[in-house]
Amino acid sequence: MALFGNNVKEKEAYQSSTPTPVMETANPYVSSPNSMNVIGKGTTITGDIDTSNDIRIDGKLEGNLYCKAKVILGSSAVLEGNLSAVHAEISGEVVGKVEVNEMLTLKNSCTIHGDINTGKLIIEGGAKFNGSCKMGAVSKEVSLNGSNNMKKPVAASV
Fold this sequence. Notes:
Elements (H helix, E strand, L loop, with lengths): L7 H10 L18 E4 L4 E3 L2 E3 L2 E4 L2 E3 L2 E3 L2 E4 L4 E3 L2 E3 L1 E4 L2 E3 L2 E9 L4 E3 L2 E8 L4 E3 L2 E3 L5 E5 L4 E4 L5
């Protein structure tokens, strides 16, 4: 009766002795639809990246980036290659062509050296880009490397 009565000390003792349920953790090696790939600051990757999931880069990528979801380039990110994505938010530096099917956001710390082709564009004050910009419908098949005519499909919706 003490457990359900007014004896506070007995209630606290019961609660502290009751085991807390352990939640199962997801397998970190299995991709989920909401997973995000992350390349941290201080990391350099040489080669192309092709992903169906969101990706955030705070380090350096020397190669092309193909993403069928959202790309986030942090303020310390450097991409020396072309970018193809459905959505992108750029705070760092890109030296190459940027093609985004839907929304491209250029944050105030971003610098783009190359042409932009996007469905919609948001440019914050302070953002810089040197190149041409085309807006409107971006084709579903994006040509990124004109010299060898390499094409990668970009998903129309996420």
